[in-house]
Amino acid sequence: MTKRKSDIVIVGAGIAGCILALALHPHYHVVVIDKQAQAQEKVGECLPPTASRVLRKLHLSHLLQSSEHTTSHGMVSFWGSDYPTIVDNVKNPDGLGWHLHRQHFEQQLRDELARRGISLLSSAKVAGITKADMDWQVQVTSQKSQSELTTQLLIDATGRSCHIARQLGAKLVLSDKQMALWLTAPVATSKQLAVISDETHGWWYSAPSAAYLSQNTGMQTRVFSWQAPAEIIKRSGIADVDGFLTRARQVKGFSTLVDLVNRQGARLHPMVSANSARLERCAADGWFAVGDAGMSFDPLSSQGMLHAMNSSMQLAEILVAHGLRSTLATELYQSQMDRVWARYLEHRQYFYHGTTLA
Q1: Between β-strands 277-279 and 295-296, what pairing exists: parallel, antiparallel or unpaired?
Q2: Is 0.85 surpassed by the pTM of this model?
Q3: What CATH number is associated with residue 308?
């Protein structure tokens, strides 16, 4: 068994884990562990313009220049109205947003870890965690080797599963049971605007997809998703593309898009979690949780990836300012996350007022 020491071990090489590692690398020795050999396919989402601030600070702006990502011009909203409201990014001081190819972006971040000399143990799993005096002993296994990492600080960046924090005794609190059923399809349009619309039992969303580019230059691949309580989606009986699009065509603002869909190229994907949840505590003695591991948001907020970046940057700044063993660092980060959650719940209640999701 190989034994190594590191100041910080981050479990999870998604957006939160990679951003945190890149931010901490100039100050501490960091090791990142991830069970996957490379970034995996995920449901994409819009990255809001303000995310450019984090990327500039970490000298990562060039990643968005990849042809795999497309700009987001804004959104057409039918929320609470039969008439559209356009919310565009043209006058946003941070510029346009992006429709990310999520898998490609996360692989770009992994590659950036390697370029900057940050150790990434991929295809590796955490087999055990024990506390020895002030340090953590982390047992790591892969197909080829076993190792033990001794570290001062352990970071959970495992996403919604919050696997490490729960293993250390943290409790996950679910706020709702919302799920998302989604479909990707070629659409005969070139508009770069997302569309959103509410209904009594949930809401619908469509946006250009950078991850599923159409080979036909006259077509644009888009994501269509329906967010609602799991029992509502199951009760609908939707089992194929036609069933999904028939339902979507009845939604305010969606009939034109649905009529432009090439159904032969459409693909219905399995339901995924789209609920709001948080750990009772995002930080405790010797460990922190960032991104979705600490709290996961409803996709309506469009804050998932941005929160992953911001929470990681906030934690990095606290650790650099106060050190790895500071109780003040734990208190400050927890206080910041409590404020983030409170603001999120206020906004969620405002938008869902009058629906079954409130």
Answers
A1: antiparallel
A2: yes
A3: 3.50.50.60
